[in-house]
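Why do we care about 3D structure at all? Because function follows from shape, and shape follows, mostly, from sequence. That is the central idea of this module. The next example makes it concrete: a single protein chain, its amino acid sequence, and then its structure expressed as tokens.
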Amino acid sequence: MKGRGSKTLILHADSLPSIISRFVAWRAKQAANMETIAWIQKPDKNNLRHAARLVGIKGVQIDDHYFNDPPISINELRAMLGKKQLWCSFQPRQFSHAIANSCDQNDVQIYRHTCKETGNIARNLGITGNSKIAVAAYEDGSTEGIELISCIKRDLSTLGTNVFVFKWKNQEVWTQRITNALKRE
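And the structure:
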């Protein structure tokens, strides 16, 4: 990851035992000088409390699910986190500059679009040129996916916008491959 320019490890930490997350964060720092952010995909009260107690992490990223039905307010969450950073991840329809200003870092999940559509959506949301807001895109490992990410990075760099790339084996990608293989038979 470090070899590809990553500076931060996003660790899925919903139910990861504290001792394991602490070891992973320590190892990322020692081996690659990477900071660790605990990603809470299911941000219910218990998972948020768990994340607040984690040791050795720089911050906590709340998934877009939080904004559908927040179990606690952003202010309560910030107080719970203490000195840890708060990263917020939004779907485009959820994004709000007011809420984003309450977070240390933000990403808007504009993926599954063409390269130019991604840039147009980012521009229409008013998130281009803001160093605290990145466009999130996933890399599925496919050649097409890697090419799309490269195109999105090039396009958004002209708009002064960062791309937050995460690895994800999207179910749609591998099930599509199976479906295509079956159709050929």
